[in-house]
Amino acid sequence: MKAAVTTKAGNPEVIEIREVDKPQVKTGWVLIKVKAFGLNRSELFTRRGDSPGVVFPRIQGIECVGTVEEDPSNTYASGQQVAAIMGGMGRFFDGGYAEYVLAPIEIIFPFESELAWEILGAIPEMFQTVSGSLDQALEIAAGETLLIRGGTSSIGMLSCQLAKARGLTVIATTRNTAKKQALIDNGADQVIIDDGSIKEQVREIYPEGVNKVLELIGTRTLKDSLKCIAPKGMVCMTGILGNEWTMKEFTPMGDIPSLGRLTVYMGESENLSKESLQDFIDDVEKGNVKLNIDKVFELSEVAAAHQYMEDNRAKGKIIVKL
Questions:
Q1: In the chain, where the domains are located
Q2: Which residues contact 252 (CB under 8 A, 6 or more apart)?
Q3: Whose CA, among 25, 73, 139, 151, lies 20 to 30 Å from 175?
Q4: How do beta strands 63-70 and 29-38 pair?
């Protein structure tokens, strides 16, 4: 089969298209014919060599959608539509950047849909991350104010839509003034141009601060996001768009405001139910949710897609369709 193989840690050009052996089916695993997959920021870090325990060469890809090729357990029928999400895929065993992937049955999610594969490819990891961040971590509620730091990312765009549907007021940020209208069109009530310090801009709109912050930039802006919350407000760090994992200095009793709360979301496949994924796919199919897909690449273009992601050029999800 053809696969996009990350040959070693490095820049996007270390990803090469190669002919490799098709995975051999084994008990407890399902062989999937890959139809599409989304690119994720964590895959950029893995490619750079920043994910502990990853051995190269490696076929990356923490998610995919496709059809069942073979399931020894007969849990899933041949040709059945499925998604595979995380569980070490693309890091500790070969992942979705290929024509076929062998994945543990525990991370397989069946679904039924008439949507195009490139649309379905955008859904699994994005929905898992958004639903986990908003509901499990931030525990959003109608009437609250939500600040989305990194609003033009695929996670940010979907979070805005779901939060608005739940009755929240949303403030979204972008560093690029050219992307402001895209955030407004996506439903944001206010847009702030982010120069790394937005506390004063937020306080001008909400003097007491916002109730919740979804931090998608990461450690670079985390301290500033904590300064934006109201008493008993909460910040959830989910993304690392700023490309920095750690902070040089952090003083909990200085950087976290009194009564403020800081959490993170690092969800896995077990944080997502098969029913909720199907319900979300149905909502997309009905037009209740609009997915922001920025660009669709081919398998032969995975290296270029990684460069596109690294350059922060996307205003939504980047997809590879086979």
A1: 2-123+291-321, 125-264
A2: none
A3: 139
A4: antiparallel
